[in-house]
Amino acid sequence: MNDENHTLHPFAANNICLIGLMGSGKSTIGPPLAEHLGYDFIDLDEEISKSMGRSIREIFEQLGEEKFRTEERNQLRRFCQQERQVIACGGGVVVTADNLECLRRQITVYLAASPETLADRVGVGEDRPLLKGAVSVAHRLATILKEREPLYRDCARIILATEGKDPATLVNELKAKLPTEITTPA
Ligand code: S3P
């Protein structure tokens, strides 16, 4: 996607939404980026967990994915109405059509990596419902990525290749790509 298609919506809040598959580094680079910008850091999964009173794994097991997706949508909308936040979204945030519209109105950043790298970072992925029972985590991630990659790319204003880069490098690269009104104090 080019920048022309992603000029900020007139009603856009200046939130930075981090998207990408599990293991892409959203929760790793989110907090230092927020701290640097003087923004709040929001972990959407944590907010869903708090509001539903269970862990993500329990929500999937006890209530089902649909209930999880509904709450994910509600929490995303709630936070996108506020400002000056770095929001780490769950990897599946893009599967709900409504969320795409919401993400396009924010400064959405896709953290891209190959399934092999994601698998290395995730490890066995015990707490990740979508990896449950996978014989090969890399293979499962490749299947999910194939479905979601076009959606990540469609709603991202910035795409960051994360392969082989440490968190500090990624934060610096991302800062350099952010609109100057965000990185320059008023
Ligand atoms: C999911 C990713 C998870 C979490 C839930 C569903 C997904 O978040 O929201 O298990 O559908 O990819 P992370 O991407 O932070 O692991």
Outline the structure in words:
The chain is α/β, with parallel strands linked by helices and 186 residues long. The longest helix has 19 residues, at 137-155. A five-stranded parallel β-sheet has the order 2-3-1-4-5, with helices on both faces. The protein has nine helices and five strands; from the N terminus they run βαβαααβαβααβαα. The chain has a single domain, classed as P-loop containing nucleotide triphosphate hydrolases (Rossmann fold). The protein has helices at residues 26-37, 44-52, 56-63, 65-80, 97-104, 115-122, 137-155, 167-177, 180-183, and strands at residues 16-19, 40-43, 85-88, 107-112, 158-161. Helix 1 packs across helix 8 (167-177) and helix 3 packs across helix 4 (65-80). Bound molecules: shikimate-3-phosphate (S3P). Shikimate-3-phosphate is lined by residues 22, 26, 45, 56, 90-92, 128-130.
Question: Which keywords apply here?
Answer:
single chain, five-stranded parallel beta sheet, binds shikimate-3-phosphate, disordered N terminus, alpha/beta, 5 strands, 186 residues
CATH architecture designation:
3-Layer(aba) Sandwich
What is the 3D shape? globular
Helix content: 40-55%
Find the count of extended strands (DSSP E, 2+ residues). 5
Mean pLDDT: 91
- Which sequence of strands runs across the widest sheet? 2-3-1-4-5
The CATH class turns out to be Alpha Beta
| Terminal residue distance | 29 Å
Radius of gyration: 16 Å
CATH homologous superfamily label: P-loop containing nucleotide triphosphate hydrolases
Give the structural class: alpha/beta
Q: In DSSP terms, counting alpha (H) and pi (I) runs of 4 or more, how many helices?
A: 9
How many domain regions? 1
| Sheet having the most strands | 5 strands, parallel
List cofactors, ions and other ligands. Answer: shikimate-3-phosphate
Topology pattern, helix = H, strand = E? EHEHHHEHEHHEHH
**Strand percentage, roughly?**
5-15%
Low-confidence stretches: 1-11
The CATH topology comes to Rossmann fold
